[in-house]
Amino acid sequence: MLSRVADALFWTGRYLERSACLARSVDVTFSLDLDLHGVLSNPVELEWNALISMLRQPPPPPGDGEHPVAAVQRWLLVDLGNPGSVMACVNRARNNARSIRGSISPQMWRELNKLHWRLSDGSFQAAVAQSPHDFCEETQVGVLLCHGVCDATMSHDEGWHFIQLGTYLERADKVLRILDSKFGLLERGDAADLPVCNLQWGAVLRQCRAYEAYQRLYISRVEPERVVEFLLVNPDFPNSVRFCLERVLDSLTEISGRLPGRSDSDAMRTLGGLVSELTYLDSEELDGERLHGLLGDSLGRCGRVGQLLQQQYSLQ
Amino acid sequence: MVPSSTARQTGVAPAPVDSASGPEAVDTGSLLAGYELGAAYDEMFDGELQARGHYQQLAHLLDRTPPEEFRRRKAMTDLSMRQDGVGFTVYRAEEGIERVWPMDPVPRIIPADEWQQIEAGLVQRITALNMFLWDIYHEQHILRDRVVPPQLVLQGSSFRREFVGVDVPRKIYIHICGTDLIRAADGEYLVLEDNGRTPSGVSYMLHNRQVLKRVFPSLFNDYDVLPNDDYPAALLDVLKYIAPESAAAPTAVLLSPGMYNSAYFEHSFLAQRMGIELVEGRDLLVDANRVFMRTTRGLRRVDVIYRRIDDDFLDPLTFRPDSVLGVPGLVNAYRAGNVALANSIGTGIADDKGIYPFVPAMIRYYLKQDPLLNNVETFRPEVPAHLQHVLANLDTLVVKRVNESGGYGMLVGPASTAEQRDDFRRAIRANPRDFIAQPTIQLSTHPTFVDGRLEGRHLDLRPFVLCGERVVVTPGGLTRVALPKGSLVVNSSQGGGSKDTWILANTGRT
Fold this sequence. Notes:
The structure holds two protein chains of two kinds.
Chain A: H1 3-36, H2 43-55, H3 68-77, H4 86-99, H5 106-120, H6 122-126, H7 133-153, H8 158-187, H9 194-207, H10 211-218, H11 224-233, H12 241-256, H13 266-279, H14 288-312
Helix pairs in contact in A: 1-2, 1-4, 1-7, 1-8, 1-9, 2-8, 4-5, 5-7, 8-9, 8-11, 8-12, 8-14, 12-13, 13-14
Chain B: H1 6-10, H2 23-27, H3 56-64, H4 67-83, E1 87-89, E2 98-100, E3 103-110, H5 112-136, H6 141-144, H7 150-154, E4 176-183, E5 189-195, H8 202-215, H9 231-241, E6 252-255, H10 264-274, E7 277-279, E8 284-287, E9 290-295, E10 298-302, E11 304-307, H11 311-314, H12 330-335, E12 340-342, H13 359-367, E13 374-375, H14 384-392, E14 397-401, E15 410-412, H15 418-430, E16 435-439, E17 445-450, E18 453-462, E19 464-467, E20 471-473, E21 478-482, E22 496-503
Parallel strand pairs in B: 3-22, 5-13, 6-7, 6-11, 11-12
Antiparallel strand pairs in B: 1-2, 4-5, 4-19, 8-9, 9-10, 14-15, 14-16, 17-18, 18-21, 19-20, 21-22
């Protein structure tokens, strides 16, 4: 397939996933914010600032009298002045898809286009000032629909695998960042903080759409070590880092046309190493310090894989 | 108020009128109530407001459809267009770059016998045009015999002297042609324009049918409409037919300027329907006079290019050096016979507005036949007698620049201001060869949904002709309709919309 097409497919997948992850984070933070009102004195800035720094995004420019939380929500969701906002990501996904709309199924294009028009609606965007929930929900459902339609209507050929590459690489990256932003909480074992801590780790699970799946597996309270273990190395849950990176590895293998484990490309070596480390990780050893090191190292390697892909397939 | 006169006005049974009075009663009135005829030929109604034979069932159905119901269907049509991203990009407009091209849900119907005449006329015309192109790029008999003034061809801006003596594959220059037809006041179909460069619109023809079937299936109940869905397959046949003989399993691609081009929707639509790659100039490269595309698995040979880029931008080494859309070296690869192009290079001279008046003469010259489809009467200011006539009658004529298209650079006399006429008068005097003038033809009208009811709007018809192993005219075409009241300009860039176009099967039904 054309390199340009492969590139656009990769970024379509990546931006779609990015918009859904961000929408979920905003939604969960909004809800957490309301809960924390009861237990903390000034939770607002803490949580929203943590979210912004986790996303490595610039904070919103100082507004004219707008409530700071509303300003952050608008900045992260609908402001096109923020190149990382949900709306900007959906636009980029659509523009990438549009530039190669002949290479995706018409049904997938249609869903993506519908999502774009729904989210672009002025009054729908204005409602974010009251509650960001509907906007976030619409984004997530729209992206899920795109994934479903993509899987059900497109040949699972090279082009489809490039979409998977973008999707799962982005998702792994986001889960790693969410965990990384919370590792500090592991250090504090203060019993007085327990309710807050539970809320916080519950929010981490929800940001990864993992709350119910976690409960089902562990049948216990939210325990930080288990949350980390679940989100990092669970082999079956589609939002765990290991699961995502295994999908990336599968797609890379398919695209390379070689037998599993036989490729000599740098991208596959880098990724394969990381996947086997996660697979054989002894989670008992994960104290805060080691976890921090592992997360940072994994993030770096994911970034490296992205760069190597660009070189190898001369994606622009 | 209106319903009582419905029957007489529209020649169909009146809609059952609710006994309720008040504002609701107006809503139950017929969509066609108060339909007005103008000076133009109306497609649906004759001079007595009786529905023409092939329109009777449709008129009856429209008459029974409550306006509110129709409005709902129209909204479904618009939504569907928007969700499918059936848009185009507008030049010279500030309202953003993406716009949806509105489709009017009332179909235009052409009976089988009328279509057969149109089809035969189009086949005759494309055949003559292709013979003309071969001739002027080789022996130039028609110029020597003074049937066409040589300077019109040789000095025409779209004549490619670089291509004199070049043999194009299968001797075909125009593979894809979109001929604009209009109807005069007596209903005669006339050729307004031949589009033999990179004609657009076929995707709207195909898409309109799909949308109409989805949102308004009941319209189809009383009619046997010929399907038009075969066009992409027929186009692919043409592309394969012209491939270099050395290519056993030829690879065809569609070359597009990219997603910011006004016809990008069409490019991606056709590429997808044919299953070929949509490429941009930067995806291709030429090595040793052979064309390749850059893929994730290295370079892959390209044999046929359906190009949707004008000659001028095709190859910066041969034509405009500032073009970033084209492929350096492509023209030499084409000359070497290593790649085929559709349409060929240099076809623009055949649909040049300055050459247009001579097409009937070409048909007689090459085919020894009388034209089956006539031209619109055309004056050439270059001819002194014509110049007098044109300057004296600017207020009734349509004046067109020879090198403009898309409805730009036109003067529509009856709708013009004195100032505009003065501008054109000066310009025509200065460069008479740059203009042609035609009487203002009141393009035929057709009931069109405007402001909650049906009103007559002017339209034209662009059927699509494919020329490969044989000439194929897809049953149907793009009907473009000028939505502003009284407007005669149907171009999408100038506030036009479109309609589904039905060619009826020769089955005896209606």
